[in-house]
Amino acid sequence: MIHFGILGAGDIARKFLDAVRQTEDGDVIAVAGRDIDRARAWAEKERLGTFYGSYDELLANPQIDVVYIATTTNAHYKNILQCLLAGKHVLCEKSMVCTYEQAKEACSLAKEKKLFLMEAMWSRFLPKTTVVRNWIAEGRIGRVNLMQATIGWKADKIYNKRLFLPELGGGSLYDIGIYPLELLPYFVNQKIIDLQPFMKRCDTGVDDISSLNLKLEGCFANIQCSFTTKLPEDVYIYGEEGYIKIPKIHYGNQAFLYGHDDKVKDHFEGGLENGFVYEVEEVIHCMKNGRLESTVCPHEMTLEAAMWIDKVLACIGD
Fold first, then answer.
1. φ, ψ (nearest 5 deg) of residue 201
2. Residue 298 lies inside a defined structural domain of this protein
3. Which of 55, 85, 227, 263 is least surrounded, with the fewest CB atoms within 10 Å of its CB?
């Protein structure tokens, strides 16, 4: 069995715990929160026997193989280093870090310590993602020329306050824009080579609306993200012989392939309700095979996304 510990007793950690419990070779044996009462309440609700009021206590548990970091974005970098220095493998929620320099240091330390490190871009592991990649690789829509992705919703400023606070790593790019930024290049197996950003900031200073025009190695793409505007959350991939529609880019279970006549030529539907299961299985697979990186979500994915986000935030002033 691969034993997981969780840093951060919040909502996303519940989904992760449920996912691990659906696997055959993984289990969660402990959770740590910012205080003992928070950790105890979370553990009791989730029927987990071991809980800690500090992260260092969890990291001192010799039974834990991998730590899942479910804290706020601003804390990820410090938490990753804590885990690696304690000799623990790491799966960290997206966005993994806030800057390219942080990403580079985290990845370098993981390699130095010979420890596994992966950003939890779970959407790359969904069955529909694999199907779409195969359709494109097989030439089902011909040469891809354009891609479009929208992802957005209207967040509650009180309940979702972390999204609006720069000190907590808020902003639409870090929270949801990261999905298409790390998914679109993966669909077509191409790197981003240039990017033109447009951005609107809310009164706290973080980006609440971002629009990115991307030039990839062989096509163009546009990404729009927001947490103050409801967007369809769909992806369109346009080729010379047809196009693909992916409803709900980051969590859906369907994909449609259309021909020139706008008629559906192929349709995929499938996958588990909790899509986190697939990324957990990838971590377990890597652990059992001694791999320090995932081939689906390698360090390079995180480093490139962090580099482009750095450039976007640097060139858009207040």
1. -105, 145
2. no
3. 263
